[in-house]
Each structure stands twice: as structure tokens, then as C-alpha cells.
Amino acid sequence: MHLSHALTHRGTVREINEDAFLELPHLGVWVVADGMGGHAAGDVASQLVIDGIQKSLECLTPDEITISILKSSLQNSNRLLQQMSQSDFDGKVAGSTVVVLWLYAEQYHLFWVGDSRIYRSRDECLVQLTKDHSQVNDMVDEGILAPEDAESHPLANVITRAVGVDQDLDIDYQVGTLKEGDIFLLCSDGLNKELSDIEIERTIKAGNIIDSGLALLHSSLVRNARDNVTCILVKNTQVIADKTEECDKTIPVFI
Predict the structure, then answer these.
(1) How far apart are CA 151 and CA 36, in angstroms?
(2) Which among 31, 28, 27 has a CA at the least distance from the CA of 6?
(3) Residue 134 domain flag
(4) What is the sign, positive or negative, of the torsion defined by CA atoms of 128, 108, 169, 14?
(5) Domain for residue 255, yes or no?
(6) Phi, psi (rounded to 5 degrees) for 70
(7) Which residues face 98 on adjacent strands?
(8) Which residues are registered as beta bridge partners of 172?
(9) What three-state secondary structure class fits 112?
(10) Three-class DSSP category at 69
């Protein structure tokens, strides 16, 4: 049984929300897409990616979903966005990051392109499962930049992969074993730009996914959310926690 809660906000600076998300708990699929700011029609790009996945799954049962179907949907969106760049945007790039979570048969499957993220909270310990496709992350890997300096670096917004940018789309994939009580967080970079991993961890383990999601969004907004913010919390559980116990917990809000 999978419980989920999704929230999105344009933030306090951006005029439009270029993020988009998809919740399909009956199929075990969740998606966050972040249109590329500063490029043509980022909101169109992110929604096209979301619509493509939804269309590819809408007539399927959970048992019929495959890795190939999900990857093919992203590849098709990549082709469509490249065509749109030429036909509708005078050659300007229309692109989007994407993270996909698919839960099936005691396993979790992750697909991602760009710097939107998927975290997993297990036994109250938060781990970033995806690896950012970004200039600063490449610099960290090469030992040029310290991890703690990555977020504040001038190249922090430069990503190295996105749907719609290159003719050949390189999709990262990861599979792992599910555990009862696992909580997954899918988010656009607007969240982790404002909150540290430690703050995210404290918020998630402090309460149920609805209250935690609201606290994450509120915390980013009170820090003036420079970018669009989207987050989806997904909990793998067979037992719904007692509502009274959940409501009694204090959720931290970071200012």
C-alpha cells in the first residue's frame, strides 16, 4: 500500500510555475518535472513530459508497467521537445528535468535526468538516491569543489542533462529493495536550494507525509523560495498510523 501527498508553488520570485508533477498511486508511479528556467516555454516542456508518462500508462495495469515503457515515454518526450524547439520556438531550447519513482513487487525503481532529486527516508535516516546531473556535481566528483560549497557556487544552476536538449537522451536508472515504512521524497531543486538535507530529514521524520510536506513547502517559502518548489512524499506501508498519534507530533519549520 502506498500513500502519497504532492505540493507545488511558484515561489516568491518567479512569475509562473515551470514545475509539474504526476501522482498515480494506484499504479505505483510518481513524477516531478522542472522546466528549464531561462529557456523557452519551460512550463510547456515540464507538462509535456508529465503528459507523456501519463498517456503511456493510462491504459495499463500495475503488472503491465515495465522499465522499457517508462524509458520510452521519456525518449519520446525528448523527441517532441526537440521538434517543438525548431517549429515553435525558433530553435531555442525547451527542456525539463525529470525524476520518476516506480514502486512494484517489493522494489523501487528510479529514473532521472537533470538535478531534480529523489531521497529515501528509512529508519529515520535520509539518503539522496539520485545523483545531480549538474556542472557543480561534476566538479565535486573531480575533487575541484568541496561538497559544502556546491549550492552557493556561481554555476549551481547549470545542469548537464535535460529532456529536450540533446538528440540522444541519457537516462539514469536505479533499482533497490523496498522496506515497510520507507518514505520517498521527489522534489525540484527549488526545495533543496532553500533547505539542507539535515533540515529535510528532521521535517520528514517528525510527522506524517501530509504535515511534513506542508512544512517543507512552508519552510522554503519563508526563506523567499527563489525558484519554483515542488515536492511529493510517498510512503510504503501496510498499516495506516493512528491519526491521533500523528497529529500530536511537532513538525519543525525552518526560517
Answers:
(1) 18
(2) 31
(3) yes
(4) negative
(5) no
(6) -65, -45
(7) 33, 113
(8) 112
(9) strand
(10) helix
Q: How far is CA 55 from the centre of its chain?
A: 19
156-184 tens-digit pLDDT = 778 899 999 999 999 999 999 999 999 99
d(C-alpha 182, C-alpha 185), whole Å: 10
- pTM tops 0.70, yes or no: yes
Residue 128 makes CB contacts below 8 A (sequence gap 6+) with: 117, 118, 119, 197
Tally Cβ neighbours within 10 Å of residue 173. 12
Is 66 among the domain residues? yes
Task: Please give the Cα distance from 132 to 213 (Å, whole number).
Answer: 22
pLDDT digits (tens, 9 = 90+) for 54-66: 999 999 999 999 9
Q: In angstroms, rounded to a whole number, what is the distance separating the alpha carbons of residues 90 and 85?
A: 6
Q: Which CATH number does the domain housing residue 181 bear?
A: 3.60.40.10
* Number of alpha carbons in the 13 Å side-chain half-sphere of residue 241: 18
DSSP 159: B
What's the total number of domains in the chain?
1
Phi, psi dihedral angles at 43 (to 5 degrees):
-65, -35
Contact call for residues 29 and 22 (beta carbons, < 8 A): yes
Residue 253 forms part of a structural domain: no
Residue numbers of the domain that contains 71: 2-247
